[in-house]
From TrEMBL:
Domain F-box: 40-86
SMART domains hit by this protein: FBOX (SM00256)
Superkingdom: Eukaryota
Molecular function, one GO term: protein kinase binding
Pfam families for the chain: F-box-like (PF12937)
Source species taxonomy: Eukaryota, Metazoa, Spiralia, Gnathifera, Rotifera
SUPFAM superfamilies reported for this sequence: F-box domain
Biological process per Gene Ontology, one example term: positive regulation of autophagy of mitochondrion
Protein name: F-box domain-containing protein
Length: 122
């Protein structure tokens, strides 16, 4: 006998994972969303501190793509200190100091997202 005809689902682990990822998790998230609760099974369900910590490791294009996914993520990733850390990560300190009013100001006193955009454009 043909084993595939008798056991069409011989890779049950893959089938189970596919069901969970493509159906069960989506339904759970939708159910929680409709009931006004946050799902901890998604990125949105994570505390903002964790989201910000993860964001520091993303390439800028990925971070901007993630930021455009929903309002909650967008608001979280607009954190001024996140953009301060990204400026330090992606640009040389000498270049940052050459921008007017960056050397003597405190990090929280300036718009680091705007500064990042200026530096990225150069």
């Amino acid at each position: 006998t043909n084993l595939n005809a008798v056991l069409p689902y011989h890779d049950l682990q893959t089938l189970s994972r596919s069901f969970k990822d493509n159906l069960a998790n989506r339904l759970l998230c939708k159910l929680l969303e409709e009931s006004g609760q946050r799902s901890s099974a998604t990125l949105i369900g994570l505390p903002n501190e964790i989201k910000l910590r993860l964001a520091k490791y993303l390439p800028i294009k990925s971070l901007l793509a993630l930021q455009s996914t929903c309002r909650d993520i967008h608001n979280t990733l607009n954190d001024n200190l996140l953009w301060h850390d990204l400026c330090i990560r992606d640009f040389e300190k000498a270049a940052l100091v050459s921008i007017p009013h960056t050397s003597e100001s405190l990090p929280q006193d300036k718009n680091w997202y705007k500064l990042y955009r200026i530096m990225y454009a150069q």
